[in-house]
Amino acid sequence: MVILDGTIVNIALPTAQHALAFSNSDRQWIVTGYSLAFGSLLLLGGRISDYIGRRNALVIGLIGFAGASAFGAAAMNFTMLVVARTIQGAFGALLAPAVLALLTTTFNDPAERGRAFGIYGAVAGAGGAIGLLLGGVLTSFASWRWTLLVNLFFAAIGVAGALVLMYNDRGVDRDPLDWPGVLTGTAGLFALVYGFSHADTTSWTDVYTIASLGLAVVLLAAFVTIQRRTRFPLLPLRVLMDRNRGGALVAMLVAGSGMFGVFLFLTYYLQVTLGYSAVMTGAAFLPMVVGLTITAQLSNISLLPKFGPRPLIPFGMLVAAGSLIWLTRLGLHSSYLTDILPPLLVLGLGVGFIFAPAFNTATLGVANHDAGVASALVNTSQQIGGSIGTALLNTLAGAAATSYLVGKAPTALNVELASVHSYTSAFTYSSWIFIGGAVLTGALLRSGAPQHSKGEVRVSAH
């Protein structure tokens, strides 16, 4: 539900904007409001799930997210919709770490864990594409409001399943809450996400962008200092000291940043250049979902227990980079079957080797009372990566379009060609991100099969 929300609402934004009569500048806040709340509150949400129990956090998160969705669906003006999206982000920050922590503490057997994280990794990687399709269908054949109301259906299933199938696990962390850490960590992440969002809508040299990113550096440095010195830290630094976990978090940061180039700019290309409808655009991504699902299961069930994450994640990144370089050949009249479908399939196969092993590795062996905050770190890495990708690739794509038009007459054809050039430039830069990620993760991850801890507490389902 949280994963789908990133794209399912975005594709409905133009329709919602027309219905509620808000400006283009206001439209950005529908996305930013959610991102700010979600990104800044994830660490706190993860620690809360350690305090109150993961099932309780899951149920509260589902109900709160559904309630905010219903409020947004009933929005009569821009303010109501922004408030709803912000509340969604806050409850999403409780929900997302709880889900991953439940997987971490429930599935201790290596075979079961491999299957569980293979499914989770496939859903996490493919959620954006599925959201595009579902958002297109709901917007085209029902109403933009149904892109929010559909969350009530998902939440009802989730709450019923949690109450019936899961034990009511008690909170495993009874330490006092680290309020200085909460304040500096939350404010630092807020400033970081806001800085990247503001750079996307203005520029990297804007005074508010510079001030926000500068403040983020100061606050996050203070946060790390506090975590080193306090007796009961919000984020115990021991969670970050494992090389495999650090490499997996870098993988999530890189994947979140690089995949943005695919979903945003390929969506633009399909809809603006080739004239695809929203539904057709969503359907165009489905082959990528198929490829991702196959390799997510293969990598987590068969390969990760034998070889460990070091050969898998860098290999997946190089495959993803190759597919993006392939997409740079797109032109004004490219064919889906020959020019788009093959690299999308390859991209899915590559990304499957990244997401599932990274989720599994990032949470493997973590102490039970740290499972929530460790899971939040994974979500935070992916969210920050997406924010960086949004700002950086939009800036680079815009600069590419501008440079293409230098010395050319601004005819309709040249403007179209400039747009395509900006999309293919974004694919090039995204491929560089993945290549850099392959080098970093190859250096950080340890060789050999992962070691499964036998001391983790099981919080299992019936």
State the main characteristics.
462 residues; mainly alpha; Growth Hormone, Chain: A; globular; disordered C terminus
Query: Level of helix content?
Result: over 70%
Q: Please name the CATH topology of the largest domain.
A: Growth Hormone, Chain: A
| Element-level helix/strand string | HHHHHHHHHHHHHHHHH
Which architecture of the largest domain per CATH? Up-down Bundle
According to DSSP, the number of beta strands is 0
Q: How large a portion of the residues is in β-strands, by DSSP E?
A: under 5%
Major sheet attributes: none
Number of individual domains? 2
CATH C-level of the largest domain: Mainly Alpha
Give the radius of gyration. Answer: 21 Å
Shape: globular
- The residue-averaged pLDDT reads 85
Computed structural class: mainly alpha
Roughly how many Å apart are the termini?
Answer: 23 Å
